[in-house]
Amino acid sequence: MSDVKPLEPAPQAVTDAESFAAIAGAGPESLRDLERYRELLAEWNEKMNLVGASTLDAFWSRHAWDSAQLLDLAPDAKVWADLGAGAGLPGVVLAILRKSDLGFHVHLVESMAKRCRFLQVVVDELALSATVHNARAEDLSLAVDIVTARACAPLHRLLGYAKPFLKQGATGLFLKGQDVASELEEATRFWDYEADVLPSRSDPRGRIVRVRRLGRARKA
């Protein structure tokens, strides 16, 4: 591991759809799609555990803005993979915001079939440029620009899931919480990797781990 430099957070306040649109640059069509996605998320959350029920009241900050901030870190990336996509975060939000961009596509990778059914309903209803994969991430071979994940697994396990994508040249952008330092340290037991840590713009406790190179840790 090298060049890991945690930064002070610089969160930007989002309280509703209007403030989200102002910060994220989302137009009326994107806001309509995001609102419908929020409704579907709430409906399906009553049947299965997709997100914490209490977080739905803070959808625009906790989910929409937390996901959307990734686009500014890779503005030219066209093909994304979201690992452990379950609730569609961040992948569905990214697909909604870049719906009109020619060539933009999101691979939603989820091993649980019932969550894939939810994702497919969202993709179909909103006509998103996204593919739902009912598969384990490490079993797929997809060429993507960015591989991402949120609330998927501790970093040392997440890097294993992302390895096939990173080996093909993808950059990793992983949304993490306040325990990121310990996760980075634990990951060095398993991996030799190059990463830096960026502040979340949605949550002062959050960080984004950007991974550019991955290899197995050398044995002592």
From TrEMBL:
NCBIfam families: rsmG_gidB
GO term, biological process aspect, one: methylation
Amino acids binding S-adenosyl-L-methionine: G84, L89, A137, E138, R150
Name this protein carries in UniProt: Ribosomal RNA small subunit methyltransferase G
Broad EC category: transferase
Enzyme Commission number(s) from the entry: 2.1.1.170
Catalytic activity: guanosine(527) in 16S rRNA + S-adenosyl-L-methionine = N(7)-methylguanosine(527) in 16S rRNA + S-adenosyl-L-homocysteine
Protein keywords: Cytoplasm, Methyltransferase, rRNA processing, S-adenosyl-L-methionine, Transferase
Subcellular locations according to the entry: Cytoplasm
Family label: Belongs to the methyltransferase superfamily. RNA methyltransferase RsmG family.
InterPro entries referenced in this protein's UniProt entry, alphabetically: rRNA_ssu_MeTfrase_G (IPR003682), SAM-dependent_MTases_sf (IPR029063)
GO MF assignments: methyltransferase activity
Record function comment: Specifically methylates the N7 position of guanine in position 527 of 16S rRNA.
